Automatic annotation (TrEMBL):
Superkingdom, natural source: Bacteria
PANTHER family (alphabetical): ION-TRANSLOCATING OXIDOREDUCTASE COMPLEX SUBUNIT C
Keywords from the UniProt entry: 4Fe-4S, Electron transport, Iron, Iron-sulfur, Metal-binding, Repeat, Transport
Record-level Gene Ontology MF annotations: 4 iron, 4 sulfur cluster binding; electron transfer activity; metal ion binding
Descriptive protein name: Respiratory-chain NADH dehydrogenase domain, 51 kDa subunit
Organism encoding this protein: Desulforamulus reducens (strain ATCC BAA-1160 / DSM 100696 / MI-1)
Record carries keyword Mitochondrion: no
A single Gene Ontology CC term: membrane
Entries under Pfam families matching the protein: Complex1_51K (PF01512), Fer4_17 (PF13534), RnfC_N (PF13375)
Start and end residues of each NADH-ubiquinone oxidoreductase 51kDa subunit FMN-binding domain: 7-152
Residues covered by the RnfC Barrel sandwich hybrid domain: 377-434
């Protein structure tokens, strides 16, 4: 079987958080294969530790993927501050005889170094055009955990586990390997947090993650971490504000200083996104949606809202508001340029991660979250049929069936973008809906 089908059968999706089915990224040839090991979300510590623990596996997974798409070069992007991991990766690349094919490039400690388009520019000096993808400039990007999953898939092991950092205002920050489908509350319990009454939980990193309304869900393949903060923390209050309240405040306080635009990572790459214009539009009820199509160029990195704006306003939320309106009306931004170049001021306007962490009130919690062995022994697991971008998987098991860890339980619908789903532990199917398969964990006989 070729690598694309191995990856497809193993249910591999982008482990960086977006959940795009990986096989669908590999249908075209590209000049570069890039490994995104930037992990720029504050407090999350998954990729840096995976690269330290499994360098050979990640290198081999990246190499195989690069050879498959006929890339002439593979580049690992990792922040230079992880000095020991950088040295280790270089040593292992040389020891594996791949020095002519693969190199490690050190990224600056800035936000959002892991944004796919920022990463492409930092590693290749190319700029992905507006509303486009890295392939347009000859690059395919995969995340470190994705490369590890590809290595395991080549050995016949599908994706049944994910690595998560549990961090924030808690006594024991840690990074753990969790079987897909375990209750999120179980993960917190294992990390020593029994009572969540005082906490709000951010699903993902503190910048791009959102505050969870309900923590009674189950872990999926694309989860990367949870940040637990007290309910009155600045980030929780800011992220919990609705668009109407944000609009009222913005109307009185936006001084059109342009800082949200001038520090926007996508604007600095030469794109036309200008959040200050969207703030102006919402404040003065300028309703010409054709003028507002630039909102679609926003990657929702949240830099404008959590770092740049001196008045602590909500330009990213306003972007999202207009994105939704445009989608409802089927309006799409059409680029007028083909080539893009970073703006001259870019080098002076990058956002240092340390300053960002301080600005968003996380300095006290910016501590290690060491990889910790935890044995999960849940009574039941619930495996979502949509853990990815695309159509939900179709169950191939029924109530009463016994399933084995690693067994296919949901397949990709015909002619659709999607990802296969596998049982993460042995047991018996006790419920099967259009949204999930629940398994009572037990021995397989
Ligand atoms: S940075 Fe804040 S105050 Fe300045 S234009 Fe943007 S939203 Fe308005
Ligand atoms: S969230 Fe703000 S800073 Fe980030 S891309 Fe969108 S407009 Fe730019």
């Amino acid at each position: 079987m070729d690598l694309l089908n191995i990856i497809k059968d193993a249910g591999i999706i982008g482990a960086g958080g977006a959940g795009f089915p990986t096989h669908a990224k590999l249908t075209s040839k590209a000049e570069y294969i890039l490994l995104n090991g930037a992990e720029c979300e504050p407090l999350l510590r998954v990729d840096q530790q995976l690269m330290a623990q499994f360098p050979d596996e990640i290198i081999r997974g990246l190499e195989a993927t690069g050879r498959y798409i006929e890339a002439r070069k593979a580049i690992i992007g990792i922040k230079g501050k992880h000095k020991e991991v950088v040295v280790l990766l270089r040593e292992r690349i040389a020891a594996l005889g791949l020095a002519n094919y693969m190199e490690v490039m050190e990224l600056r400690d800035m936000y959002p170094a892991g944004d796919e388009q920022v990463l492409v520019h930092e590693l290749t000096k190319r700029v992905v055009p507006e509303a486009s993808i890295p392939l347009k400039v000859g690059c395919v990007v995969i995340n470190s955990e994705t490369a590890l999953n590809i290595y395991h898939a080549m050995a016949g092991k599908p994706v049944t586990e994910t690595y998560l950092t549990v961090a924030g205002d808690i006594p024991h920050r840690m990074t753990v390997k969790v079987p897909v489908g375990v209750a999120i509350r179980d993960v917190f319990r294992q990390c020593g947090v029994e009572n969540l009454d005082d906490y709000a939980v951010i699903d993902g990193g503190p910048m791009m993650g959102s505050v969870m309304n309900n923590v009674d869900g189950y872990v999926t393949k694309k989860n990367k971490g949870y940040v637990l903060l007290k309910k009155d923390h600045f980030l929780i209050r800011k992220k919990s504000m609705g668009i109407e309240q944000a609009r009222v405040i913005g109307k009185t306080a936006c001084e059109q200083c342009r800082m949200c635009t001038d520090l926007c990572p996508r604007y600095l790459l030469g794109h036309n996104i200008q959040p200050h214009k969207l703030m102006r539009a919402i404040n003065y009820n300028l309703e010409d949606l054709n003028e507002l199509k630039i909102a679609q160029l926003c990657c929702e990195c949240n830099a404008c809202e959590l770092f740049s704006c001196p008045a602590n306003l909500h330009p990213k939320s306003v972007n999202i508001f207009y994105k939704k309106k445009l989608a409802e009306q089927g309006i799409r931004y059409q680029p007028t340029q083909v080539e893009f170049h970073p703006r001259a001021a870019r080098e002076y306007r990058l956002i240092p991660s340390k300053r960002l962490v301080a600005k968003i009130g996380l300095k006290t919690f910016d501590k290690p979250a060491p990889m910790t062995e935890v044995e999960f022994q849940p009574e039941t697991i619930r495996i979502a049929l949509r853990q990815h971008i695309g159509a939900p998987a179709i169950p191939v098991v029924a109530v009463g069936d016994q399933v084995k860890a690693g067994q296919l339980i949901g397949k990709i619908p015909d002619n659709s973008l999607g990802a296969a789903v596998h049982a993460s532990l042995n047991g018996t199917v006790v419920e099967c809906t259009d949204n999930f398969i629940e398994i009572k964990v037990g021995s397989y006989v």
